[in-house]
Design brief:
Strand order of the largest sheet: 1-2-4-3-5-6
Bound molecules: zinc ion
CATH class: Alpha Beta
Radius of gyration: 15 Å
Order of helices and strands: HHHEHEHEEEE
Strand content: 15-25%
Number of strands: 6
Shape: globular
Number of domains: 1
Largest sheet: 6 strands, mixed
CATH topology: Muramoyl-pentapeptide Carboxypeptidase, domain 2
Length: about 150
């Protein structure tokens, strides 16, 4: 099912973890989740794709509860609601992609540069908090989210 010019529902549901473990519910999300994924594609992913002028890859979109638990996602992850996607762009460093999204002016709820592995972008229609973080692993191996100050200018 096509959500926008360049993004399909299938792409945002795809999960190697679900495939490996047989979590079939990953591929039959609730209707409100599909609605949120559609909004995410329309309001964030497609505008980013259009402005960038080349493909961006989605490493994780929606996650059913079992997938989210299996990969150690936080219990209230926006991935559970179809409100977030982890992204990367070929031939672009994660940090550069993170800064590019920030500078693009495209609205988001949370933008997180996670461990130099991907850029997490969420959208929550009508409730966007415009929060920006850089996530790093501390010496104990725990994720630490460092907020970035962003001026409203
Ligand atoms: Zn994420």
């Amino acid at each position: 099912m096509q959500l926008s010019s360049n993004f399909t529902l299938e792409e945002l549901l795809h999960s190697t973890e679900a495939d490996a473990k047989g979590f079939t519910e990953q591929y039959s999300p609730a209707q409100d989740v599909v609605g949120n994924l559609n909004t995410l594609a329309q309001q964030v992913l497609q505008p980013l794709r259009d402005k960038l002028g080349k493909p961006l890859n989605i490493s994780s979109g929606y996650r059913c509860t079992r997938v989210n638990t299996a990969i150690g996602g936080v219990h209230n992850s926006q991935h559970l609601f179809g409100q977030a996607a982890d992204t990367e762009v070929p031939d672009m460093t994660i940090e550069d992609w993170f800064k590019w999204v920030l500078a693009s002016g495209i609205e988001f709820d949370q933008l997180i540069q996670e461990f130099d592995h991907w850029v997490h972008i969420s959208y929550n229609a009508g409730h966007n908090r415009h929060q920006v973080f850089r996530a790093v692993m501390n010496e104990q191996g725990h994720a630490v989210y460092i907020p970035l100050h962003v001026s409203n200018g």
